[in-house]
C-alpha cells in the first residue's frame, strides 16, 4: 500500500501541473546554465590543450634532455624504455635544424631562424601533428610540410620543394602531405618538414633523439610508468628529464600561450557565477510558488493531514521535481554547449574544434545542485505550511508569507546581510593580481550580492515607492497604486527586483571585463607592434652567424622618391652581460622619432646620451632599478638610468645611445631597418613602396608588423567570441529568471487583483498598474545590478591591468543604459500576459481563488 505522504505528493502533482511546470522550467534553466557553462568550459579547455599541446597527445611519459641541438639521447635509451614492462607504445623523435626554400628560391626564416626537420613517427598514435591532406613520407625523396608554410608559399601535394642542410647541400623532395601542428610555440613561425628518419639523419648529420615518449599499458597510470622508466634509466649516468604527460601538456600549453591558465581561471569564474545564478533562480521561483500554495497546503490540515505529512509531502515533491528537472537541465546543457561551439566556429574559424566534453563530475554537480537547491528552497514554505492550524487555514492568505518581514527578525537579517557583504568585500580586496583573481573576485561579488538579496526585503519596497513618486504625479491613481502595492508587499517586490539585479549585475560585470580587455588589447597591440615594416637580411647559410644589413639597403629606403615613409631607422642589437652576470639584449637606433620611440613610463628619452641608458620595465622590476639609479654594464661601465619604457620596436631590454653603442662595439652595419609609414598611407601602398625600394636587394626579408598586429587583433576578437557566447547565455538565463519571477508575482496576486476590481478599479487601470509596478521594480533592480556588477567588474579588470597592462578599466555607460532599458522591456513583456489575464478574470472567480 502506498505511503500517505507519497499519495499526497502524487495528488498535488496531478492538480498543480502548471505550477510544477513553472518550477521545473526554473530548475531546467538554472541547471542548464550551470552544466552548460561547465560543458562549454571543459570542451573549450580540451580543444585549446589539444591545439596548444598536440606534441603531448596520448603521451604518458616523456624522456628528454632538450630541443633543437641542446641535447640528444643515445639510441640505447630507446631500447631501455621499450623494455619497461609497463610500456604499451613508445616512439623516438628526431628534431633537427633543416632549412626550406620558398617558392621564390629564398631560405624561409623567422627572425633569422631557419626551419625544423622532424622524423616520421614510428607509432602513429604518438604523432605531434594531424595529417590534413595526402600521406606521410614513406621513402627517401618525400616530405610533408606544415600547413602554414604550404599556404604562404602556395605549395600543393605533388610539388617539388627544396630543403637545405647545415652543410648547405640542397635536396629536392616531393611534397606528399600537409600537416597541422596546432599552435606550437616550439616552432612558431618556422617551416616544419617531416621526413623519413634515415633521410633526416642524412641531411642533418644527426646522431640521437630529441625526445622519447611512451604510453602506459591499461591499468598503469602515468606516475607509475614514470617511476618505472626512471628506475630503468637513472643509472645511465646522464642528466635526463622524465616527466608525465600531464606535466608536459601543461608546460606546452603555457609556453604556447601565457594566458592559458588565465583562460581556465575565467572559466572557473563563470562556473561560480553559473552556480550562484542558477541557485538564485531556483530558490526565488520555489519560494514564490511555496507562498502561493501556502493556503492550499494549510487547507489540507483541515481534512486531516498532519504536520509531518505536509512537511514530508512538500519535500518529497520538491525532490522529485528537482531531480527530474535537473536531469532535463543536463540534456539542455549539451544543446547549449553545442549552440555555443557552433556559433563560435561560425565567426572564429581558427579556434580549435572539439567534440562536446561531458564529464561525470559535471553531471553529478548539476544533479546534486538542482535537487539540493530545490529541496532547500522548499524547506521554509513547507515548515510555514505545517505550522498553520486547521482553523487558521480558513483565513490564511495566499500571499501572507510574502507580505512583510517580521519586526523581530530585522536585526538578524541586517547582521547576516552585513556579514555576507563584508566577507564579499574582503575577498575582493585581497584578490591576488592577474587572472587568478577572477574566481576570487567573482566569489566575493557573489557573497556581496547575497548580502544585497538578504537585505532587499527591508528596503526594496520603500525604494520602489521613492522611484514611483514622479510617475504617480504624472499618471495618477494607477501609478500611485503600483508604488503603494510594492511597499505593502516588500518580500514580493524584493524577490522580483533581485531577479533583475542578479541578471543585470552579471551582464554588467562581464561587459566591463570585455570592454576593458578590448581596450587593453588595442593599446597593447599598438604598443607592441608600433612599426609598420621591418627589413632584415636572410642568412646565407644554416647555422651561420647572424648577418647584417648592407648599408645600401638603408640608403635605397631613405632615398625612395615616393614619400610614403615617415622614418627609416637603423637598429643594432647585441647581447650584453652585467657585472653580476645578468644577461639581456641591448639595442640602439640611429633616430628616435615617431612610432620608433618606445613608450616611456618613467623619465625621458631626451636625456639619453653616452653614459646613460633606458631600460625595459620588466628588467627594471627584476633588478629593482628606477630613474636616477646606476649600474655596471660589461662594456659601458657604470651607466645611469634616464628612462623606463614599457614596449618598443624590439624585445631588447636596454636602450643605448647610438654613439655609446658605437663606442662599445665599434663601427658596424645595422641588424635591421625599421620603416614607419606616414599618416594616411595604407599598408598595401606601403608594402608596394618598400618592395619597389628594395628591388635590387633579393636577400632581405620584409616583415609586416602592422599585418601581424591586425592578425593578433583578429585572434583576440575570436577569443572574445568565446566569452561573448557565455555572456549571451548569461543574458538568456537572466532574462528567463526575470520573466519567470514577474509572471509568478502577477499570477500569485489573483485574489488581490480581483479585490481591486471589486473596489472600482477598471480593467485598463489594473493592467496599467501591474505594468507600471513591473517597470518600477525593473528600474530599481536594474539600477542596483548595474552599480553592483559594474563595481565587481571594475575590481576584476583592475587586477588584470595591474599585471598585464596599464591605464584604467573601461566603464561602458552606453551598454549599462541599454541593459537598464532591456530590463524594463523584459519586465513589461513578462508582465503583459499575466496583467491581461488578471484584468480579464471574472471578479467573483478571482475572489474565490487561493
From TrEMBL:
It is found in: Cell membrane. Residues 21-231, 493-692 form the MacB-like periplasmic core domain. One of its GO terms (molecular function) is transmembrane transporter activity. Keywords: Cell membrane, Membrane, Transmembrane, Transmembrane helix. It comes from the Bacteria. The keyword Ion transport does not apply. It holds the Pfam family FtsX. The chain crosses the membrane at residues 20-40, 263-292, 313-341, 361-383, 411-430, 436-460, 494-515, 722-747, 768-796, 816-835. One of its GO terms (cellular component) is plasma membrane. Residues 269-390, 726-842 form the ABC3 transporter permease C-terminal domain. Belongs to the ABC-4 integral membrane protein family. This is Putative ABC transport system permease protein. It comes from Allocatelliglobosispora scoriae.
Amino acid at each position: 500500500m502506498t505511503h500517505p505522504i507519497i499519495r499526497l505528493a502524487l495528488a498535488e502533482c496531478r492538480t498543480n501541473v502548471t505550477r510544477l511546470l513553472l518550477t521545473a522550467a526554473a530548475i531546467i534553466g538554472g541547471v542548464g546554465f550551470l552544466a552548460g557553462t561547465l560543458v562549454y568550459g571543459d570542451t573549450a579547455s580540451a580543444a585549446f590543450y589539444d591545439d596548444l599541446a598536440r606534441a603531448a597527445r596520448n603521451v604518458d611519459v616523456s624522456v628528454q634532455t632538450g630541443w633543437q641541438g641542446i641535447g640528444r639521447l643515445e639510441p640505447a635509451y630507446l631500447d631501455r624504455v621499450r623494455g619497461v614492462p609497463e610500456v604499451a607504445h613508445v616512439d623516438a623523435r628526431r628534431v633537427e635544424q633543416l632549412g626550406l626554400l620558398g617558392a621564390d628560391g629564398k631560405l624561409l626564416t623567422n627572425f633569422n631562424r631557419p626551419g625544423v626537420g622532424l622524423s616520421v613517427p614510428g607509432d602513429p598514435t604518438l604523432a605531434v601533428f594531424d595529417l590534413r591532406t595526402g600521406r606521410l613520407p614513406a621513402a627517401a625523396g618525400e616530405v610533408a610540410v606544415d600547413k602554414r608554410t604550404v599556404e604562404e608559399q602556395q605549395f600543393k601535394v605533388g610539388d617539388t620543394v627544396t630543403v637545405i642542410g647545415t652543410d648547405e647541400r640542397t635536396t629536392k623532395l616531393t611534397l606528399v602531405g600537409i600537416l597541422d601542428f596546432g599552435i606550437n610555440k616550439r616552432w612558431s613561425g618556422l617551416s616544419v618538414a617531416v621526413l623519413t628518419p634515415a633521410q633526416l639523419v642524412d641531411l642533418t648529420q644527426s646522431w640521437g633523439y630529441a625526445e622519447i615518449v611512451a604510453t602506459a599499458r591499461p591499468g598503469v597510470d602515468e606516475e607509475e610508468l614514470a617511476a618505472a622508466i626512471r628506475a630503468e634509466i637513472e643509472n645511465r649516468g646522464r642528466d635526463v628529464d622524465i616527466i608525465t604527460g600531464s606535466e608536459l601538456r601543461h608546460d606546452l600549453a603555457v609556453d604556447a600561450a601565457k594566458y592559458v591558465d588565465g583562460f581556465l581561471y575565467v572559466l572557473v569564474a563563470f562556473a561560480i557565477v553559473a552556480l550562484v545564478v542558477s541557485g538564485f533562480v531556483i530558490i526565488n521561483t520555489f519560494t514564490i510558488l511555496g507562498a502561493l500554495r501556502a493556503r492550499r497546503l494549510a487547507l489540507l490540515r483541515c481534512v486531516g493531514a498532519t504536520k509531518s505529512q505536509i512537511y514530508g509531502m512538500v519535500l518529497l515533491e520538491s525532490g522529485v521535481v528537482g531531480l527530474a528537472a535537473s536531469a532535463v537541465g543536463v540534456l539542455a546543457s549539451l544543446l547549449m554547449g553545442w549552440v555555443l561551439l557552433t556559433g563560435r566556429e561560425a565567426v572564429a574559424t581558427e579556434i580549435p574544434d572539439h567534440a562536446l566534453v561531458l564529464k561525470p563530475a559535471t553531471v553529478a554537480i548539476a544533479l546534486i545542485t538542482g535537487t539540493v537547491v530545490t529541496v532547500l528552497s522548499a524547506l521554509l514554505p513547507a515548515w510555514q505550511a505545517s505550522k498553520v492550524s486547521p482553523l487558521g487555514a480558513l483565513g490564511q492568505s495566499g500571499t501572507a508569507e510574502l507580505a512583510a518581514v517580521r519586526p523581530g527578525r530585522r536585526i538578524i537579517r541586517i547582521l547576516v546581510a552585513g556579514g555576507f557583504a563584508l566577507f564579499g568585500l574582503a575577498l575582493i580586496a585581497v584578490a591576488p593580481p592577474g587572472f587568478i583573481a577572477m574566481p576570487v573576485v567573482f566569489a566575493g561579488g557573489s557573497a556581496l550580492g547575497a548580502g544585497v538579496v538578504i537585505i532587499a526585503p527591508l528596503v526594496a519596497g520603500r525604494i520602489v515607492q521613492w522611484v514611483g513618486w514622479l510617475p504617480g504625479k504624472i499618471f495618477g491613481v494607477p501609478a500611485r497604486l503600483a508604488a503603494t502595492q510594492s511597499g505593502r508587499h516588500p518580500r514580493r517586490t524584493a524577490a522580483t527586483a533581485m531577479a533583475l539585479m542578479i541578471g543585470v549585475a552579471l551582464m554588467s560585470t562581464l561587459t566591463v571585463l570585455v570592454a576593458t580587455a578590448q581596450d587593453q588589447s588595442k593599446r597593447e597591440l599598438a604598443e607592441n607592434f608600433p612599426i609598420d615594416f621591418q627589413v632584415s637580411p636572410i642568412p646565407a647559410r644554416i647555422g651561420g652567424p647572424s648577418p647584417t644589413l648592407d648599408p645600401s639597403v638603408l640608403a635605397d629606403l631613405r632615398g625612395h622618391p615616393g614619400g610614403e615613409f615617415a622614418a627609416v631607422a637603423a637598429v643594432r642589437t647585441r647581447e650584453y652581460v652585467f657585472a653580476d652576470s645578468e644577461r639581456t639584449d641591448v639595442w640602439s637606433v640611429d633616430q628616435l622619432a615617431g612610432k620608433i620611440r618606445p613608450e616611456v613610463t618613467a623619465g625621458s628619452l631626451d636625456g639619453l646620451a653616452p653614459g646613460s641608458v633606458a631600460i625595459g620595465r620588466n628588467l627594471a622590476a627584476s633588478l629593482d632599478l628606477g630613474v636616477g639609479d646606476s649600474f655596471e654594464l660589461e662594456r659601458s661601465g657604470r651607466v645611469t638610468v634616464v628612462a623606463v619604457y614599457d614596449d618598443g620596436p624590439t624585445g631588447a631590454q636596454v636602450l643605448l645611445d647610438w654613439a655609446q653603442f658605437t663606442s662599445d662595439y665599434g663601427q658596424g652595419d645595422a641588424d635591421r631597418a625599421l620603416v614607419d609609414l606616414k599618416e594616411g598611407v595604407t599598408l598595401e601602398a606601403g608594402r608596394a613602396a618598400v618592395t619597389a625600394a628594395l628591388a635590387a636587394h633579393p636577400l632581405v626579408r620584409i616583415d609586416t608588423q602592422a599585418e601581424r598586429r591586425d592578425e593578433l587583433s583578429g585572434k583576440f576578437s575570436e577569443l572574445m567570441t568565446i566569452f561573448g557566447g557565455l555572456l549571451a547565455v548569461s543574458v538568456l538565463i537572466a532574462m528567463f529568471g526575470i520573466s519567470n519571477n514577474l509572471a509568478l508575482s502577477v499570477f500569485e496576486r489573483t485574489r488581490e487583483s480581483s479585490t481591486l476590481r471589486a473596489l472600482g478599479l477598471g480593467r485598463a487601470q489594473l493592467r496599467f498598474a501591474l505594468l507600471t509596478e513591473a517597470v518600477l521594480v525593473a528600474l530599481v533592480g536594474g539600477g542596483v545590478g548595474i552599480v553592483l556588477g559594474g563595481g565587481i567588474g571594475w575590481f576584476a579588470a583592475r587586477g588584470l591591468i595591474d599585471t598585464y597592462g596599464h591605464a584604467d578599466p573601461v566603464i561602458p555607460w552606453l551598454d549599462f543604459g541599454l541593459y537598464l532599458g532591456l530590463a524594463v522591456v523584459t519586465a513589461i513583456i513578462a508582465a503583459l500576459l499575466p496583467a491581461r489575464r488578471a484584468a480579464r478574470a471574472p471578479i467573483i472567480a478571482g475572489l474565490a481563488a487561493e
